[in-house]
Design a protein that fits this description.
264 residues; alpha/beta; Rossmann fold; 7-stranded parallel sheet; two-stranded parallel sheet; 9 strands; 46% helix; globular; binds NADPH dihydro-nicotinamide-adenine-dinucleotide phosphate; binds the ligand N[C@@H](C=O)C(=O)O; NADP-dependent 3-hydroxy acid dehydrogenase YdfG
């Protein structure tokens, strides 16, 4: 068995993108802590990876919409100096228009996609900085920059993930703690059933297989990318978008209104 690269914590590892991160990171040489609600599905993912790689793979059953469960996972992370990677992947979406969606379900989505991700990042980062080593991967979505595409609360939650990651990356510069934010496009997972639109209803040409998504995201990580959008073929489009944002940044706060808002 190769020497461990440390332990990677992966939330939402019982299916889809998180389960594939588990497989790939174990093969790279990480021990794993896999987190999700469904203990049986978690163990079904963990067992073959354990057998095939010989890595230490723990499973933690937690509903990350519940504060007690989030606190439990946060403590596990904060107390374990072996942890070198946190993949904040657990998330749910919705395809119904936001005003036609159940407000409680929207709050639960925010609790998972935003609050849990934030709390677990707060649990991991101080140790990473103190030890001068660590990686945070936040799974956002292309809806972070196209919130009109699906449910607006989902888009807003992923816009948070992108903005939070942008700020975190800036604050951690020089600390040897790397931040990556991944913006998947439509990906073939159970996400779509849970979100209310089976993936088979999407045009085939816009849906990426989950293994291709995860392998591309990991290649981006190995290149120390900050933003990784596996399905965007012309990366110059992101570069132009980001350059426009940066160019505007210095002009957004001034001591008088713009001429168009001056009366007369
Ligand atoms: N599939 C897609 O098209 C896209 C997905 N994404 C993002 O990718 C991430 C992974 O989704 P994906 O793999 O596609 O979907 P899946 O539905 O396959 O996976 C979601 C994972 O999150 C876990 N999860 C859901 N609710 C909770 C909860 N309350 N507490 C703890 N874990 C929970 C699920 O496990 P369990 O049910 O056992 O708790 C499961 O392991 C999400 O953040 C999603 O927003 C982004 C863009 C596109
Ligand atoms: N990125 C997907 C969901 O989050 C999509 O918009 O297809």
């Amino acid at each position: 068995m190769p020497e461990t690269l440390g332990t990677a914590v992966i939330t939402g590892a019982s299916s889809g993108i998180g389960a594939l991160y588990a497989d790939r990171l174990a093969r790279q040489g990480y021990d794993l802590v896999l987190v999700a609600r469904n203990a049986e599905r978690l163990e079904r993912i963990a067992r073959p990876i354990r057998e095939q790689t010989g890595r230490i793979i723990e499973t933690v059953t937690a509903d990350l919409t519940f504060a007690d469960d989030v606190n439990h996972v946060a403590s596990l992370i904060a107390d374990n100096a072996e942890i070198t990677v946190l993949i904040n992947n657990a998330g749910v979406g919705a395809t119904a228009p936001l005003l036609q969606s159940d407000a409680n379900a929207m709050s639960a989505m925010i609790a998972l996609n935003v609050e849990a991700l934030t709390r677990l990042t707060y649990a991991a980062v101080p140790g990473f900085v103190a030890r001068g080593r660590g990686t945070i991967v936040n799974i956002a979505s292309i809806v972070a920059i196209t919130p009109e595409r699906l449910n607006g609360v989902y888009g807003g939650s992923k816009a948070f993930v992108l903005a939070f990651s942008q700020s975190l990356r800036q604050e951690l510069e020089g600390s040897n703690v790397h931040v990556q934010v991944v913006l998947p496009g439509a990906t073939a997972t159970d996400f779509w059933d849970a979100a209310g639109l089976p993936v088979a209803h999407l045009p085939e040409e816009i849906v990426m297989p989950a293994d291709a998504l995860v392998d591309a995201a990991l290649l981006g990580l190995s290149r120390k990318e900050f933003v990784t959008i596996p399905s965007l073929h012309d990366v110059a489009q992101w570069d132009v978008y980001e350059a426009a944002r940066q160019a505007m940044a210095g002009n957004l706060s001034t001591n008088k209104p713009a001429a168009r808002y001056l009366a007369g």
